[in-house]
Amino acid sequence: MEKKVCRKCNADFIVADDDLVFYRKIGTPTPTWCPECRRVRRFVWRNERSLYRNKCAATGKEVISSFSPDKPIKIYDQSYWFSDAWSPLDYGREYDFSRSFFEQWRDLYYAVPQINVSNKNVENSEFCNVNSDSKDSYLISAAYENERVMYGNRVGANRDSLDLYIANNNEYCYELVAGKNCYKVFWGQDCTNCSDCYFIYDCQGCRDCVGCTGLRNKQYYIFNQPYDKAAYERKVADLDLRSRAGLERTRVEFEKLRAGQVRKFANLVNCENSTGDNLEGAKNCHECYDLVNGLQNCRYAVWGGYQMSDVYDASPGVGANSSVIYEAFDAGINSNDIQFVGVVHNSSNVRYSLNCYSSKNLFGCVGLSRQENCILNRRYPESEYGTMVERIKRQMMDLPYVDRLGREYRYGEFFPPEMSPYGYNETVAQEYYPIDQSVAVECGFNWSYDVARNVAVTKKAGDLPESVDELRALGEGILREVIECEHKGECNEQCTIGFKILPQELAFYLEHGLPLPKLCFNCRHYARVKLRNPMRLWKRQCDNQLRIKNEELTGDEKTQRCPNMFETTYAPEREEKVYCEKCYQNSVV
Fold first, then answer.
1. Helix axes 101-111, 382-398, angle to 10 degrees
2. Whether the Cβ atoms of residue 399 and residue 386 lie closer than 8 Å to each other
3. Element (H, E) at 222
4. Positions of the chain with pLDDT under 70
5. In terms of C-beta density within 10 A (0-12 exposed, 13-18 middle, 19 or more buried), how is residue 563 classed?
């Protein structure tokens, strides 16, 4: 193995033996940035939720765009971008060996028109991004096949729900985090196959439960205590869950119970020789997160899966019948041997390219589809392509790009973050690795300086209706109000300062007896993200105290801490009780 020092954060990190085998296999130098810094470097290229009104440079049509109008980016409406009305090959240029590769690639990237948003095959869902096959939805991202869903991220196949994060196949749910196959679950986290519940955590197969944690296949429970049906209904009525005050009292009691809930060290299902969290069907995968449905021999990969192998440093969004991927985001789908790429699918042998589809043998390209043997969007005869690529690789080692902080980028490094068209605070980097403006600039990231928000708030957050009955009495008049976000723009969470309630949203609150939110949709999203553990592992010992017989005495019992060690996303200094697999299974009821 190699011991190295990260050129970005100066932390020590190790390139393991298995990693060295992988790097030799793909012909790439070992990384100079640590795994977490490499992840952040990719994250700053993905903007999922910051949307703006902009204009298509080809048609003049006003469109929703992930690029703000002040960016030096020419955008095309997605229907025009995917049409044959223009060709990205027209922007091709010869390689200049007197200039660094990254400098030339940057010039190409900012010259080629970019797609306004990725929002495919949708109906009445224009205000969405990284979304497909959805209907009547609003402000959802990293999403697919949703209907009548609002304010969701990383959501799929949900119906009639609001404020979701990492949710699949749910219906009539609200404020749901990591939920699957749920129905009418409000304020739930890490729950599966549950229905008609309020404030639940780590529950499976539960119905009619309020304020519960760690339950399996239970009904009529309140704060983990059982009731018969009649008593449950009386108790729920006393909780007054249709008022803001009643919900807050219930939430406070629920949080007390959750604080003492035993935590499983990691969510690993059908996994073999794998570490990380929220993995399903993984073999020989390490430091991976949120990957499902078949993966093997992967490392430092996040969000995706669906049959993939030999994938390193890929996030966010990777996989789907893909193999041999390195340093990529939003990439894969029937691809093989792609490195240093973003939004590349159905392709093979692609290096340093963005937004390319159904292609092979690309190096340093942007926006190509159904092409091969191209460098900087210029075609080469097949006999010349390989020779040119090897020559460019050598030149990248001899003539590195130097960023504004003096850091060098040679072949084997991902795109410099200063070349991203987005500010750090516009991207998923801010959601998972939040920093303020001064730190971002100090680390060499871009920052988006918002135009001053002249929000004319008409209703203070403290003046909102306290119950659904009061809300109903206001009628549609609330739709005309600009509601003040409680954060008032003083947080670091892309606060909108003021927000409005939409008709579809109001109907949901009235139907389910829910009060209006006091935070804008951005601040609510950040609150949900904070509920999950970081993508980082620590070594920790099981906290369970086992009872064992003291044979030296009279058969009395004593306690001894379980000796099992594991890698977990719960840092050692955290107060939660974290158990190994066996102890955890013995603790749930």
1. 120
2. no
3. strand 219-222
4. 451-453, 549-556, 589
5. exposed
